[in-house]
Amino acid sequence: MFINIRSTDSISIVPVTANDWEALQTTLTETQRHWANLNGFTGKAGQLCLLPDSQGGIGKVLAAYDAAEGKLWALAALPDKLPAGAYHLDCAWDKAECTQAAIGWGLGYYQFNQFRQPDDKPRPLLFAYADIQRADAFIQAVTLVRDLINLPANHMMPEHLSGVMRQLAGEYSAIFSEIVGEDLLAQNYPAVHAVGRASAHAPRMLELQWGNESDPALTLVGKGVCFDTGGLDIKPSQYMRLMQKDMGGAAHVLGLAKLVMQMQLPVRLRVLVPAVDNAIGGDAFRPGDILATRAGKHVEVDNTDAEGRLILCDALAAAAEKTPGLILDFATLTGAARVALGTEIPVFFSNNKELTTQLQAAAETTGELIWNLPLHKPYFAQMKSHFADFLNSGGSYGGAITAALFLNEFVPEGIRWAHFDVMAWNTRARAGRPIGGEAMGLFAVYRYLETVYP
Q1: pLDDT tens, position by position, 285-295
Q2: Residue 334: inside a domain
Q3: Residue 306: inside a domain, yes or no?
Q4: Residues forming beta bridges with residue 16, ordered by sequence position
Q5: Which residues are marked as active site?
Q6: What is the count of structural domains for the chain?
Q7: pLDDT tens per residue, range 274-318
Q8: Among 318, 338, 332, 313, which residue's Cα sits nearest to residue 408?
Q9: Statement to judge: residues 113 and 236 lie in one domain
């Protein structure tokens, strides 16, 4: 993937945009300009031109990228397109920019091959003036998120998610614990139990703790619905097809936790993952049921397919009990967020204006788009119940907002909180981002964390 020392015979890669191309041509030999023009190279994003040397080999690589996507994905297509060999980055980018490009290069290697023969073709190696340890940490974190989401449900049930979290804890000398099955009732996680009790795969509350007691407390909460049939309000088959990704929130917080621990961020980290299989069975929870929650509030089930917020409410209540300085949750929570912003832009909500502004600034810095929607409290009236404190669903309009308002009921005032509603899946292939599970918002959120916890 990377080489630490630039070899004398490595081939230069010159990143170029359409706006750069005219000026760049003046630095090429007449033969190179002619070759590039003969091959129709214009600097349009995605174009690649291999300029020959005097011996008929590759003398230089022109790699066109989209400036709007920043440096992160500038080289991401190349590991799959370039012949094997040693290459070096030939441009005026600073170390931070080269590190971003190295992350994209590394993610360009990504393949999910657990259930098929891997592509063992030789791959190119890159030398770049970059922080390779940082690049490797991000590549590992994103790879973990992708791999967990890509695993089908018969290989990623609550007990499997537990095993992954336990292994991650062992890798970084963290403390892992779990509450399983009927013990959820004894230890006051009634909503998690209700959602997962119909499955042969027992529901669980998973927890990881890491860091020094004296450091500021950060809690991550991830939705771990390992498969979602929709429950008795069963999903149509076309909407159930990708529901292996409904534990994408859990995958995100595990990837983010790995990054925090590997980069030794000075925080006292706590990760909570309610892990369930929302199955259909004789003991499945029903529309009209009124469920207790850890916070003492009662919720009337309007729709069993709005189950993610039910397990998250218990986890958020548990997170708040230790009054951390910050709670971040990730969830594949609503189709409404996808309708609003499409599949590639994570939606986030926050109860704190300063936190919102800081997250947006971090997104600008990293070039990863995340988008804030309002916690518009008048919409909470859509979840009014005649028999319980409120419903678990707010009807047809503003679904991402009403879901966030539901969660907000379980985060006490005074605790900074942000909720990320993510697709966690690439529906189209792009450079370094194949179809399948995807980490969304990870770069922006980590940038925010390392800014406030230097």
Answers
A1: 999 999 999 99
A2: yes
A3: yes
A4: 64
A5: 235, 309
A6: 2
A7: 999 999 999 999 999 999 999 999 999 999 999 999 999 999 999
A8: 313
A9: no
